[in-house]
Design a protein that fits this description.
Layout (H helix, E strand, L loop, with lengths): L11 H14 L3 H7 L3 H4 L1 E4 L2 E4 L7 H13 L2 H10 L25 E2 L2 E2 L1 H20 L12 E5 L6 H9 L9 E5 L4 H8 L7 E6 L6 H17 L4 H7 E5 L2 H7 L6 E3 L16 H7 L1 H20 L6 H15 L4 E6 L7 H13 L17 E3 L11 H6 L6 E6 L9 H18 L3 H6 L7 H4 L7 E6 L4 H22 L10 H15 L10 H15 L2
Parallel strand pairs: 5-6, 5-7, 7-8, 8-9, 10-11, 10-12, 12-13
Antiparallel strand pairs: 1-2, 2-13, 3-4
The chain binds glucose-6-phosphate.
Glucose-6-phosphate binds next to loops.
Length: 547
């Protein structure tokens, strides 16, 4: 990769944006809307079947032009092409970044190290479909001949958050005769609670781990194996009917005792947090069936193509990515809220936390020099309307600026009385209240006593995006996830960071490996940590001995 010599803060457009910001920061959305009665129609874009209204952002048309210019100057087009072409853009791990290949149609060609990877992707999908069909039809039986009714995905991070989110999001499409659970934490409570009401003879574990060496996953996998063998007394033979693996590490899978015929592979060019549409999505496919899974992939692909081909001014992920940069770096916004008004998307914010924060929580550029600007924001959120009765207070009247993404669907999967109109009315009302607020004059005109007026004023001018889709389907979920994947990519390109490594998770893992024997050893260990860590270890050792 060619070295980027010009630092972001030295770019002409960056400095133009900084100067421009001073003016925009003083403008109120009330005025911007009043000055341009068509703003709410103009600052919208429809792409890949999703509608984005970005008019309630603190921008002018000039801001938009400057941000788009910044994207050009930062080489966004070149970097998009490099990703789709299979260039090794994850430079610190020397890997291609090709989650887009996971949803490429069968005839496509994406070449990595001289090989078209698309046929291999489809071969794995076909094997996953075969397993899913056999489980869903009852043909695949447990060791004692009972039908498999429970599927437990054991994995963590990228091998867990996507599957959990997708299962919850697409529950309406799932086989309700089967139970799906997800175990991730090394805290034994996670495993114990997941299996406490299940019959081992009817349970299949999917051990999902790219490396097959992750401490949490392997600890849980071994506990699962003991739990199974305590009931199903078939020894190693029973493992084959109750365990399958999703991994890139064949040797470790075999060592665990899983038949490698029941191993589903993926590749080093699929990052953990970008893997829910690879074999890591096996639990999703078993739950919703292969056809639905393929339509989810279709949705991802439609958004991939939109991102790859749409002009930047009409490109949803590009616009959302640029707006995220605008708030992080010019308004100094520390966080961003994602607020899905769809109960099935309750795990979507948690999924996005990993996607965004593990990708762009970086402090050095691709050249290894320290950044002189803020990178990835803190993402958080809860499904509406619940959040309205808790943290929205701070978004409306607190001192911090929190850009919000509202996500809503025109049609509900559970039509019931007036619920859906009420739900959607709340999304629109929140975005409206945030943008326009309520002035002191308006509050006074309602007869509010003077002393109470300041408490009841809403400043407004709080920005938000509204994303509208038709209905939550496997396809629209794929589009939504891809929208955020590519928005994250756009931000990473502007910030010139490697959005695809995650070195920040390493140190704690290494230190834990050192501390485990110190907690377990019978003899008092010689401790060489700092005084706080030493003291905590001693205290824990003492109290675990007490009755
Ligand atoms: C994601 C990260 C990380 C990873 C987990 C699990 O991008 O790489 O969250 O997914 O650490 O790793 P394994 O799949 O190797 O167990």
């Amino acid at each position: 990769m060619a070295k980027q010599i010009i630092q972001l803060t030295e770019r002409r457009t960056w400095n133009a944006l900084a100067a421009h910001y001073d003016g925009v920061a003083r403008m109120h959305l009330r005025k911007l809307f009043a000055d341009d009665p068509k703003r709410g129609e103009r600052m919208t874009v429809e792409g890949a079947g999703l509608y984005l209204d970005y008019s309630k952002n603190r921008i002018t048309y000039e801001t938009l032009q400057l941000l788009l210019q910044l994207a050009d100057e930062s080489g966004l087009r070149r970097r998009i092409d490099a990703m789709f072409r299979g260039d090794k853009i994850n430079i610190t791990e020397n890997r291609a970044v090709l989650h887009v290949a996971l949803r490429a149609p069968i005839g496509a060609s994406i070449v990595v190290d001289g090989e078209n990877v698309v046929p291999a992707v489809h071969a794995v999908l076909d094997r996953m479909a075969d397993l899913s069909n056999r489980l869903r039809s009852g043909e695949w039986k447990g060791h004692t001949g009972k039908r498999i009714r429970n599927v437990i995905n054991v994995g963590i991070g990228g091998s867990d958050l996507g599957p959990v989110m997708a299962y919850e999001a697409l529950k309406r499409y799932s086989d309700r005769a089967m139970t799906f659970r997800f175990v991730s934490n090394v805290d034994a409570t996670d495993f114990a609670e997941a299996v406490q009401d299940l019959d081992p003879e009817e349970t299949l574990f999917i051990i999902s781990s790219k490396t097959f060496t992750t401490l949490e996953t392997m600890t849980n996998a071994h506990s699962a194996r003991e739990w199974l063998l305590a009931t199903v007394r078939g020894g190693e033979k029973s493992i084959a009917q109750h365990f399958v693996a999703v991994s890139t590490n064949r040797a470790e899978v075999a060592k665990f005792g899983i038949d490698t015929a029941n191993m589903f592979g993926f590749w080093d060019w699929v990052g953990g947090r970008y893997s829910m549409d690879s074999a890591i999505g096996l639990s999703t496919m078993i739950a919703i069936g292969p056809d639905n899974f393929r339509s989810m992939l279709g949705g991802f692909h439609v958004m991939d193509e939109h991102f790859r081909t749409a002009p930047f001014e009409r490109n949803l992920p590009v616009l959302m990515g640029l707006l995220a940069v605008w708030y992080s770096d010019f308004f100094g916004a520390q966080t961003a809220a994602v607020l899905p008004y769809e109960q099935y998307l309750k795990r979507f914010p948690a999924y996005l936390q990993q996607l965004t924060m593990e990708s762009n929580g970086k402090q050095v550029t691709l050249d290894g020099t320290g950044v002189k600007y803020d990178t990835g924001a803190i993402y958080w959120g809860e499904p509406g309307t619940n959040g309205q009765h808790s943290f929205y207070q701070l978004i409306h009247q607190g001192t911090r600026l929190i850009p919000c993404d509202f996500i809503a669907f025109s049609k509900t999967l559970n039509p019931l009385g007036r619920h859906h109109d009420m739900l959607v009315a709340n999304v629109f009302a929140q975005a409206e209240a945030l943008a326009f607020g309520k002035t002191a004059e308006e509050v006074k005109a309602e007869g509010t006593p003077d002393w109470l007026v300041p408490h009841r004023v809403f400043q407004g001018n709080r920005p938000s995006n509204t994303i509208l889709a038709d209905r939550l389907t496997p396809e629209s979920l794929g589009k939504l996830v891809a929208l955020y994947e590519h928005s994250v990519f756009t931000q990473g390109v502007i910030w010139n960071v490697d959005s695809f490594d995650q070195w920040g998770v390493e140190l704690g893992k290494i230190l834990a490996q050192r501390i485990i024997p110190e907690l377990e050893s019978k003899a008092e260990p010689a401790l060489n940590h700092d005084s706080s860590t030493n003291n905590l270890i001693r205290r824990y050792r003492r109290s675990k001995e007490e009755l």
